[in-house]
Specification:
binds zinc ion; Arc Repressor Mutant, subunit A; about 45% helix; about 150 residues; about 15% strand; 5 strands; single chain; 6 helices; alpha+beta; two-stranded antiparallel ribbon; three-stranded mixed β-sheet; globular
Length: about 150
């Protein structure tokens, strides 16, 4: 879990703008999901979300997540199990990385300090070399066992 500062007002404003641009309505149900994802602080499965808000129905959560994903407010994370996990997109939450547990599938966020991120970018650029590939960013997962499974 990271100590990133989350300004819910900014996140709602950015999400609302994306919804409007895509001609979707930023309903209270969708706002609630964005707040849940911001509050959980790590990628969440649909059962995780339903556990925190038993009144939500799986079908509405699924549908609203799909729309939030379509407008780029939410992104889906692939873990070591076959359960989809969702988090607020990097555009909203900032660049970060994931710790993925190979045993239980738990995904946690971690942030690499800015200076190390720049070193990482340099290493990656060198590795890519003259392939002609033009990188726009990177995704880096660390896999292993979470504290509970270790
Ligand atoms: Zn685990
Ligand atoms: Zn990075």
């Amino acid at each position: 879990m990271s100590d990133r500062q989350i300004d819910l007002g900014d996140i709602h404003a950015a999400t609302a703008a994306r919804m409007t641009a895509a001609e979707h309505v930023y309903t209270s149900g969708r706002r609630e999901l964005v707040e849940l994802l911001a509050g959980i602080g790590r990628p969440a499965t649909i059962p995780d979300l339903l556990e925190t808000r038993p009144k939500l129905t799986q079908s509405s959560v699924y549908r609203n997540l799909a729309i939030l994903e379509e407008v780029g407010a939410v992104q889906k994370i692939v873990s070591s199990d076959d359960r989809a996990r969702y988090e607020l997109s990097e555009e909203l939450m900032g660049h970060h990385h994931h710790l993925i547990c190979l045993s239980c599938g738990l995904v946690d966020d971690f942030v690499v300090p800015a200076r190390s991120e720049r070193s990482l970018e340099t290493i990656l650029e060198r590795a890519i070399g003259d392939t002609g590939f033009r990188p726009s960013g990177h995704r880096l997962d660390v896999v292993g066992l979470c504290a509970r499974c270790a």
